[in-house]
Design goal:
17 strands; 4-stranded mixed beta sheet; Nucleotidyltransferase, domain 5; about 475 residues; 3 domains; alpha/beta
């Protein structure tokens, strides 16, 4: 592995105090931003960024750039582009307003001329918000005001309910009666390789029928699924990447509405799996301001606000950069480097296996390779432990970065990657990063991991509580 450069596009790349044992070139995003802010503290200019989502929702983010005469001004565009990238995938938006006209023009070129930029513009505009994506310069005196709408999520337990959780390597289902789980099940699948929407419909229905067999009746169904969902409508989801675009628009987009009709139009709600991760954490911890991070086939993130609600933010941090080393691994979908999916998922485990020196067949699926790593870990193999240590250090620096964008009191990690003793190593290493590098955050952010059953099935259980309606049982 090549050593990381000292800087990239004018931005200083700071080595971490705790070095991941399998990735000495890791250069945390949070350290680069902190170094930039410190360097320009005596001569800086305010910069305001707004992201409009629709329905009157606007997020506003304030930061600083270097004055033009300073040498750090060479990093202005790169630091802002990385911030906007994070904001787009955390908060969402089809329209970006920027108070500096020069940077706005540079961003316009980025989203028009680079592969990662075009990917983000296409998904944010056409796919998610069904609007043309734009970046506009707007003077501060005419800048849009923040308008953040929040809403309650879940916590409804009356009646006999089904909850499901759809990931890229398995689907889980739970049967719940008045808040008590009476059945849960997990089925391995590979939905991304299937192009027929009917196959997807049949597989999901199969899990629902398994759960229904353990209930006297079905009053409501709640679902958690990887991707972006609006009113239970599929907007962007890796689960359906194999489906041709015409069939996606013709059937997959409204697949869950079709499933609801198949269940005689009982109350049904499907949301992003990250939101249900945070909901499950908030219910388990009995507190709010929870950021939930699920390390599964991808990275799923959700957020429960300090007042116990959710926002219309995307929280798709699988696409958000956490490593600024330009030679960092590239996400195959967005073609961008250093994004969360390569650090907090089965993909992360898969890329670290050969670096750790474990003899695992690379031809195996990612879930199967993870099982082998867990087997080595259970046998006390130190090479397997270094994988989890690396993931934990990644996570510690990412938490500090996330804290610049979210108000966090609790960080919950779960998902298949955290199963077994490796999950505790991830948590311990993340805590150590916060203790050594960010003591102010260590004092106010508590890190949690649920019990083993809840790590795997907690999202399906929590998803059952999503529909507000439901008969009393």
């Amino acid at each position: 592995m090549k050593p990381a450069p000292r800087s990239h596009q004018g931005l200083l790349l700071v080595p971490p105090r705790l070095v991941p044992p399998l990735d000495g070139a890791f250069r945390p995003a949070v350290l680069a931003h902190r170094a930039f802010r410190e360097a320009i503290a005596s001569d800086r200019l305010p910069l305001r960024i707004a992201l409009e989502r629709g329905e009157g929702d606007v997020s506003v983010f304030d930061t600083w750039i270097a004055a033009a005469a300073r040498p750090e001004a060479a990093g202005n565009f790169h630091v802002v582009e990385r911030l906007v990238k994070f904001l787009l995938w955390s908060r969402g938006g089809w329209k970006v307003s920027v108070s500096d006209p020069v940077i706005a023009e540079q961003l316009q070129r980025h989203y028009r001329e680079t592969a990662p930029g075009r990917f983000d513009a296409m998904l944010m505009g056409k796919k998610i918000y069904d609007r043309p994506f734009s970046v506009d310069p707007v003077p501060l005196d005419r800048f849009p005001a923040a308008q953040e709408n929040t809403a309650p999520l879940g916590r409804h337990w009356q009646g006999s309910r089904i909850g499901f959780d759809l990931g890229a390597s398995d689907r889980k289902v739970a049967a719940v009666i008045n808040g008590k789980t009476v059945f849960s099940d997990e089925t391995i699948w590979d939905p991304r390789s299937h192009s027929d929407p009917q196959w997807h419909f049949d597989q999901i229905m199969d899990s629902l029928h398994k759960a229904a067999a353990h209930l006297p009746r079905v009053d409501a169904i709640g679902g958690s699924a990887a991707g972006v969902y609006v009113n239970s409508q599929v907007r962007v989801a890796s689960l359906f990447r194999g489906v041709p675009e015409e069939q996606f628009q013709g059937r997959v987009k409204n697949l869950f509405h079709e499933i609801r009709r198949a269940w005689k139009d009982i109350p049904m709600e499907v949301v992003n799996d990250g939101e249900v991760t945070a909901l499950a954490g908030s219910m388990a911890i009995n507190d709010n301001a929870v950021l939930g991070v699920a390390l599964g086939s991808s990275q799923a993130v959700g957020y429960v606000t300090p007042d116990g609600n959710i926002t219309p933010w995307l929280n798709e941090l699988a696409f958000a950069p956490v490593d600024y080393n330009p030679a960092a691994p590239v996400d195959e979908w967005s073609q961008d480097y250093g994004c969360g999916v390569q650090y907090f998922s089965q993909q992360a485990v898969g890329r670290l296996i050969p670096v750790a020196g474990l003899e695992i067949d690379p031809g195996l699926s990612l879930p199967a390779r993870l099982v082998e790593v867990q087997r080595f870990m259970a046998a006390g193999d130190e090479r397997a432990a270094t994988i989890y240590q690396t993931l934990g250090i990644y996570l510690g620096y990412a938490i500090a970065h996330y804290a610049d964008f979210y108000e966090i009191r609790h960080l919950l990690i779960l998902g298949r990657v955290t199963t077994g003793p490796g999950g505790q190593i991830i948590l311990d290493q993340a805590r150590e990063v916060l203790r050594q590098e960010f003591p102010e955050l260590a004092a106010r952010i508590a890190l949690h991991t649920p019990e083993e059953t809840e790590k795997r099935h907690g999202q399906a259980m929590a998803a059952a509580s999503l529909p507000a309606e439901g008969l009393k049982g």
